[in-house]
Every structure is written in structure tokens, then in C-alpha cells.
Amino acid sequence: NPRFGLASTPKVVGGTDPVSSSIAAALYRTIVPEVVLVSSAAVAEAGKLTENIFRAVNIALVNELKIIFDGLDIDVWEVLDAAETKPFGFMRFDPGPGWGGHCIPIDPFYLAWKAQQAGVDARFVELAGEINTLMPRWVVRKLEIALEERGKGLAGSRILLLGVAYKKDVGDPRESPAFELLSILRQKGAKASYHDPHIPETPSMRTWSDLPPLRSQPLKRELLAAQDAVVIVTDHSAVDYEMVLEESALVVDTRGIYRQLSDRIVKA
Hints:
Strands 4-3-5-6-7 form a 5-stranded parallel beta sheet, with helices on one face. It has a two-stranded parallel ribbon with strand order 1-2. Strand 1, helix 1 (18-29) and strand 2 form a beta-alpha-beta unit. It has helices spanning 18-29, 41-71, 76-83, 107-117, 123-149, 177-187, 221-225, 241-247, and strands at residues 11-13, 35-37, 158-162, 191-195, 229-232, 251-253, 265-267. The relative contact order is 0.11. With 268 residues, it is α/β, with parallel strands linked by helices.
């Protein structure tokens, strides 16, 4: 997004002493349009953590709302569209299959650990982590129920994940919920594969070391028709979602791609 690139984002700078602060600020003023000088490196780091935690908590909130509204048979995407019409007091966050990226799933827990050292409980932070971490299992359960309604079990079913990057239109797989989904599906006996135009093959990962190397499958009508279910994990723009719906027996949509009602679409 060009609005939030290096050339348009202020840089928060705080050093371990006044000299290091001034040197760092002078360096960054040659690169970015605005430098925000704070009193210490700890304040600068806490500012970054606060940005990440703000997103983590709001992602957890909207993911929990998705589960609640699903139980009430209310479309969370329609609810968010309605809430977003207010010009004040609301900032939209969209639900998904979990959280990902290098910062949001990791940095809040660093603050929680640091708070514990100081004898303080980071209850909001830890609760957000619990909710976001459990989302892949909720998605798999929705998939299981949909397959059972069609007389199938997850074991032996062919499941295609659309997207393994942690967010739309990037090639970054770090901490993506797709890998937790792949791991759970394999544990339950499903035949899981994936398509991602930005990630041709899965990297070796410390957290999901049980996963074998996988390669992105070309997204063709024959591939889709051969699946028992397709799970939209990452909403990449390059995917032909009309073709996906035409050819798939079942689509589990975790990103709100489809707004229409269909017996082949499960919103998760």
C-alpha cells in the first residue's frame, strides 16, 4: 500500500542516551519524512509493541465476534459493513483463520513475559493470544461439520487450501495460520494440498516441523473438481474466485470473499 510505505511513515526513534538518540534521528531524517523522537529506547520499543498489541487484540475481538455471530446465524461480514458506516468510534478489523506475520503473533507475548517479570498480569494480551491461536481449529471444525453433512469424514478427504501466505498479495509465510491448518488436517487424516501464486513451495519451519515439503498446485478446474473441499485461507487478488465456486463441491470461506448464500459455501 503506497500510503503506508517507507516514504510516508514517521519513524519513532529513542536511544539509550541523548547522543545515540540524536545520531539515530539524524540518520533517519535522510530516509523518512518525519522522525518522532522519544525519551528512550524502551519507550520506542513499547510504542512498537503497542501498535502490534492494538491489532492483535482487535483481531481477537472480531474473531470472537465471528464465532458468536455464527452461533446466532448472523453474517459477521454484513455486520461489519453496517458498523463501518459510522464515521466515528469504529475502526474496522476483519476476521480470518488466525493471525500471522512476524510481529503480531509474537511481539505481544514478549510484552506479557516482560510484564510477568515486573509482577503484572497482561490479561488482555494473553486472552487475545488464546483466541487467535485457536482460530485454525475452529475453521477445521466448521469444515468437519460441513463434510459430515455431506456424508463424508475428514479422514481421507482431499482438501485444497487457497493461500499459505499470512496476508493478501504478499509472499511472506511467517507464522501463517495456513501451516497450523495443514498440520491439523494431516493429523486428522486428510489429504491436504495448497495453491498460492506468491509461495511456490513451503519453507522449512521450526514450529511446524511435522509438515513435509509441499509445492503450490496450479489452480485449474480439474484440480478444484477433484477436491472434497476448498478452504480460502488467504484472499489473494490473483485467484479466480468465480471459477473456484463453479468447480468446487464445497468452499470454506474464512475471508468473506463470497457474500451470497449458497449450499456450497460455508463461512468460517
